[in-house]
Structure formats: C-alpha cells, structure tokens
C-alpha cells in the first residue's frame, strides 16, 4: 500500500534531476566546443605563421596569435581566451623563437622577456575586452529580443483593441438602429392607443348615451305603463350607463398620463392646491380644509400636481362616515432633497394590508352603492406622481381616517429650507365651485 505513494513522491524528484543533468550536459557541450575552437584557432595561426616563416623568420612570432586570442575570446569567452594565450606562447616559442623546437624560458635575453610580457598582457587585455564586448553584445541582443517581443505583444494588443473598437461601433450602430426601430414601433403603438381611446370616447359612448337617453325617456314618458319592478330595472340601466361612462373617462385620463409630455419645472404647490380646491363641489359649508403656511417650491408639473390634489381631496370628501363633517389637513414636510406633502382626513380609512393594492386600477374596498366611484382615483394619483419622479404612499387604519402622502423633489433654491411641519396652519372653508 505504501509503494505507490513512494513512487508518486519520487517521480517529481527524478524529473527535477533529469532537467538539471540536461542543463549540465548542454553547458558542458558548449564549453567543449569553445575550448576546441580555441585549439583550432591556435593551430590555424601556427599554420599560417609557418607559411609566412620564409618572409618573417624569427621576427614577430606572436602577431597572428593575437587574432587567435580575439577569435577564441569572442567565440568562447574569457576561459578559452586564456587557454589560447597559453597555447599561443608555447607554439610561438616552439616553432618560431630560436633555438626552435624546444621550450626557451627567457632568462637572460631582455628583448625576449619583454616580447613575452607584451604578448601576455596584450593577450590578456584582448581576452578581457573581447569577453566584455561579447557579454555586452549578448545582453543587448537579449534586450532587443525582449523589446521586439514587447513590441509584438503591444502590436497584437493594439490590433485586438482596434478589432474590439470596430465590433463595439458595429454593436452600437446595431443597438441604435434597434432603438430607433423600437421607438418608431412605440410611437406607432401610442398612436394606435390614441386611436383606441378615440373610439372609446366616441364609438362606445354613443351606445351608452343612447341607452341612457332611451331609458330616461322610458322613465319620464312611459312610467305609467311600468310597475315598480320595471322602473327599478330601468333606473339600474341608467346607473350602469353612467358608471360605464365614468369608467371610460377614468381609463382615458389614465392613458393620457402614460404617453403625453409633461415638462418638469419649479412650481408653487399651494397655488396648485387652491386651484384643485376650487374644482370640488361640496354641499356642506361646514367642511374645513386646514393648510400649512410654509410651502416651498417643488419640481413637478402644474397639471399633474393639480390632478393629484383633486383626487386625494375628492376621496377625502367622498369616503366619510354618515353625519360626520369632513376635516382635511394638508401640509408639507421637508425631507431634503425631497418634500413630502401630507393629505390627512377623518374618513373611513382603510386597513394597512390593503395599502399596496389601493393605488391599483379598479381597486375598491367598499361597494358602489355605499360609496360611488370607479376605483381609478388613486391609480391616477400614483401615475401622476410617478411621472413627476416622485413616490406615493398611505398611512391609515380602518374607521380612523387616512394620511396620504407623496414626495416630490425640492426646487434647487429650497433644498436647505427649515422643516415645515404641522404647526402654523390656516383654516379655510371648502366653498362649492
């Protein structure tokens, strides 16, 4: 069981030793070639000097060996250069310095000693300088290869970047084309929806008005021929037609909020609120609306904000318990960089688990017979606030009134205003329009 584990641990070590041996083998072969080249250089210099011997005799015995030292140092480095110097001395002394064909140590002849020293020092200088030049050349070649590799990598990266930019431009053009096409399709869809709304306003309303008118004539002119049950059915038809007409109005108003252009600009919320109050009809002169005194400018649209106030106030007046005088409070609260507008009433309220559904289309909590309406008011409020880049919500308890709120961005010159809360209120009677 332990033998396979030992094999696994020994294999990487064997591979490492193999790579080390291969490296030493390569270095050894290269060194052998270098020293063998130095031997050939000395042999060639000796052969050429022998050929030139009739002309030179025993003069200039070391001249050609300088070339051999340069070659050996350049090809093999400092070690082969030193070997070439030693071999050149012995070859020159053996073949070209008298007495020939024996080793002559310079003991008494000063000229020979100086010539030997000059050759040794000159050869050593040549070997050192040539080796240094060789090393510098190889270093420059290596750096040049690295530079060429870096240039190639950069060129490849630039080519890839150029291709990516081309593809990006192509994708951008394709995306722009798709956006243009879908924008055109959206415009066509909006025009189609506007056409549908037009047909709703005319083609559907015509039969409804015919039903309403015919039934009203039936009740007014032929009521004597109808019993109480028949008159009840006719009145239900009139009520259903009127409710259908109100539903169509609500749908058309909701649809316009989705596609019409509403510019956003600084507006005075209090002026818009008073304009919405003037549109409401209330029979009771005792109805009271309490307004806050500090009203900063907000970013919104006058038409949309007026629509929001109208529906919130209308609901506050509509959803009230019998024999209870409506009391409404409207004020603004600083929540920089937004302003929160509160509309509080003393109506019937709604359970908080219904709060998320209250702003949906056709959402009703109470029967139509008790509290008439279409269920579109709060949906229109949410849509209008959304178009003004705001939020809307409600805090309420059943049978304990409601506190509707919506937030709009503050105008830039009012972002650092002091908070305006419920204190400092002014009271106003709700006068019928």
Summarize the structure.
This protein has 433 residues and is of the alpha+beta class. It has helices spanning 3-51, 53-56, 63-76, 78-95, 110-221, 228-259, 269-278, 302-318, 377-387; strands at residues 265-268, 288-292, 297-300, 327-335, 338-345, 391-396, 402-409, 425-429. It has a domain at 262-429: Heat Shock Protein 90, CATH 3.30.565.10.
Structural notes for this entry:
With 433 residues, the protein is of the alpha+beta class. The chain has a domain at 262-429: Heat Shock Protein 90. It has helices spanning 3-51, 53-56, 63-76, 78-95, 110-221, 228-259, 269-278, 302-318, 377-387, and strands at 265-268, 288-292, 297-300, 327-335, 338-345, 391-396, 402-409, 425-429. The strands form 2 sheets. Strands 6-7-5-4-2-8 form a 6-stranded mixed beta sheet, with helices on one face. Strands 1-3 form a two-stranded antiparallel sheet. Helix 1 packs antiparallel against helix 3 (63-76) and helix 3 runs antiparallel to helix 4. The longest helix has 112 residues, at 110-221.
């Amino acid at each position: 069981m332990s033998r396979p584990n030992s094999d696994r641990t020994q294999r990487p070590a064997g591979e490492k030793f193999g790579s080390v041996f291969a490296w030493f083998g390569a270095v050894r072969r290269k060194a052998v070639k270098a020293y063998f080249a130095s031997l050939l250089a000395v042999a060639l210099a000796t052969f050429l000097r022998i050929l030139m011997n009739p002309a030179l005799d025993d003069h200039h015995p070391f001249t050609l060996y300088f070339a051999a030292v340069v070659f050996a140092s350049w090809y093999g480095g400092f070690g082969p250069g030193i070997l070439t110097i030693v071999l050149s001395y012995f070859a020159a002394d053996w073949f070209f310095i008298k007495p020939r064909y024996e080793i002559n140590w310079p003991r008494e002849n000063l000229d020979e000693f100086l010539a030997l020293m000059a050759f040794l020092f000159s050869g050593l200088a040549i070997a050192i300088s040539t080796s240094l030049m060789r090393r510098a050349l190889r270093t420059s070649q290596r750096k040049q290869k690295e530079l060429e590799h870096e240039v190639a990598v950069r060129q490849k990266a630039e080519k890839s970047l150029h291709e990516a930019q081309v593809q990006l431009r192509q994708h951008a053009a394709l995306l722009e084309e798709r956006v243009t096409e879908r924008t055109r399709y959206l415009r066509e869809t909006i025009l189609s929806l506007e056409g549908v709304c037009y047909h709703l306003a005319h083609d559907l309303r015509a039969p409804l008005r015919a039903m309403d008118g015919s039934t009203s004539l039936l009740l007014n002119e032929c009521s004597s021929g109808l019993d109480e049950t028949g008159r009840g059915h006719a009145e239900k038809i009139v009520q259903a037609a009127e409710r259908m007409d109100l539903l169509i109005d609500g749908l058309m108003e909701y649809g316009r909020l989705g596609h019409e252009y509403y510019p956003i600009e600084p507006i005075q919320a209090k002026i818009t609120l008073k304009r919405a109050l003037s549109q409401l009809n209330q029979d009771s002169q005792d109805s009271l609306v309490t307004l806050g005194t500090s009203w900063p400018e907000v970013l919104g649209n006058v038409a949309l904000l007026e629509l929001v106030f109208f529906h919130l106030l209308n609901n506050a007046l509509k959803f009230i318990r019998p024999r209870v005088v409506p009391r409404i409070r409207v004020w603004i609260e600083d929540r920089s960089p937004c302003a929160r507008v509160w509309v509080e009433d003393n109506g019937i309220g709604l359970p908080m688990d219904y709060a998320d559904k209250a702003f949906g289309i056709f959402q009703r909590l109470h029967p139509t017979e008790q509290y008439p309406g279409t269920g579109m008011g709060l949906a229109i409020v949410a849509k209008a606030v959304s178009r003004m880049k705001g939020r809307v919500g409600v805090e309420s308890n059943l049978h304990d009134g409601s506190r509707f709120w919506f937030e709009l961005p503050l105008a830039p010159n009012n972002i650092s205003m002091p908070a305006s809360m419920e204190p400092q209120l002014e009271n106003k009677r709700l006068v019928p329009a």
